[in-house]
């Protein structure tokens, strides 16, 4: 499947309706790396009924116990950090679940949701995220439908994404993405998509934390014109004010990205898909294969 | 006080022996922004007996309740996000504590540790961090003494820091700092010190997560030579192997930073201080005032 075809599957992924049965628990721990880990990051920002703790490492925290819902996410099912963390969680009698398309993780005896294989992990974000949303948030059908519609529209018209990609390409810019709650993790998702799809270094940060550090160099850093600041528009007046004032006092003109949609679910997926197309177009302009992650595979082999 | 004099106070700060009395709790929530927020970030990486949740925003998660130890950290005591979060926590009957040098936060009736005023918040990291360490970890006297000794040595000899600063200055490089557990937060601390002290944009990331995204562009990104990769050496073989292999397959030569010390506390403070001097020297070379954060102050006024 071509990468552009992978992108067309996202709209259907939001209709993926599997969920876990969970018992009594007082905290959730989600383990996952890279493209699989993003699902946990996004979920942890939109759910706060119980503490959600993310593990993107080999080891799990001491507090994991039999009151912990532990969810291991690995698209391939063979991510060594996630396998290691899951084994530790099982030893501590956590209630371990898994989301994977196969691999070792699917054979460890955990309560597992199997998702379709054949995609890049980062192109399966709907399959990876929706089981979390279905289990703990239970979205309205209308919200899922709205997300489906917005994703379909983005598939048909992504001229704005293409135009931003051109600007970045022409200036050989270093993309920096600024989000704000509840889209901090999406800003990070864009950073990783720039990395993996377009093979350019990119960074993300978020309001208002960045007003306590990035703000100083935004005015007087060297190489300032080499950066390209993409900022998600916020309908929270506390953040929108900070964005406007930051632009003004640092003498920058941010490229604002409108967040379309009315439900949170639709907004999240709309923004995700915007970043998918933006980085896909940049890959095309650069003449690099957006699917190619051979270096990451090579690294996995060398350290195994 | 000159910035260089502020740096000389750090060794004494690690001997700051105040702590909170805590009752029964099942989770810890720490609120703080920027230079004050770093203390929570560092603490959350070295303590895992109970879940630690960080708040760097106006609002607190729904799960905050009367079993929550809530610690508000604001050097000035006037950080609007932290004040807002603390008020919300008090309403939810969390056990609220504060660490501050004064301001509104000191007058809100919380159980408060007052720390010396007159420093930049980022230069008071010892005062901000040690109450957390003293309360929940209880360091050995020998570890505190080791940290004191290493910091004193760094105060007397920071030639290596100066030499790295020169390289970065001469190439007008964009610093990127790669850490690994338990020093991920220190990598972020360095990023913020580059921002606030030297007024240059800088970024941080950590192993092994970065092997799932940054690794691709590390080989073929445009502008590759403009970056300067600082990597903390790790004595965890899983990370040290990843560092070596990443360098090799991406064709980069990282500037490795040795982590001196034997106790974790000493290592943490040694690395913090290394970054302090490195960014201070870069500020000097650039001819900018490391103490100047007038833009951040201006922003605070404009949004108030």
Please give a structural write-up.
2 copies of one chain form a homodimer. The first copy, chain A, is of the alpha/beta class and 304 residues long. Chain A has 2 domains: 3-138, Rossmann fold, CATH 3.40.50; 142-286, Rossmann fold, CATH 3.40.50.10490. Helices cover 47% and strands 15% of the residues of chain A. Chain A is built from 12 helices and 9 strands. The first copy, chain A, has a 5-stranded parallel β-sheet with strand order 2-1-3-4-5, sandwiched between helices. In chain A, helix 3 (34-46) links the parallel strand 1 and strand 2 (52-55). In chain A, helix 3 (34-46) runs parallel beside helix 5 (125-136), helix 3 (34-46) packs antiparallel against helix 8 (184-198) and helix 8 (184-198) runs parallel beside helix 11 (264-286). Chain A is globular. Chain A starts with a helix and ends with a helix.
Largest interface: A-B, 69 and 69 residues
SS content category of chain A: alpha/beta
| Total number of beta strands of chain A | 9
| N-to-C span of chain A | 28 Å
Write out the CATH superfamily name of the largest domain in chain A: Glucose-6-phosphate isomerase like protein, domain 1
Mean pLDDT of chain A: 97
Enumerate the spans of chain A where pLDDT stays under 50 for 5 or more consecutive residues: none
The order of strands across the largest sheet of chain A is 2-1-3-4-5
Order of helices and strands of chain A: HHEHEEHEEHHHEHEHEHEHH
Number of structural units classed as domains of chain A: 2
CATH architecture tag of the largest domain in chain A: 3-Layer(aba) Sandwich
Tell me, briefly, the overall form of chain A.
Answer: globular
Q: What would the CATH topology of the largest domain in chain A be?
A: Rossmann fold
Oligomer: homodimer
EC number (chains A, B): 5.3.1.8, 5.3.1.9
GO molecular function, one term (chains A, B): mannose-6-phosphate isomerase activity
Catalytic activity (chains A, B): alpha-D-glucose 6-phosphate = beta-D-fructose 6-phosphate; D-mannose 6-phosphate = D-fructose 6-phosphate
Organism (chains A, B): Thermoplasma volcanium (strain ATCC 51530 / DSM 4299 / JCM 9571 / NBRC 15438 / GSS1)
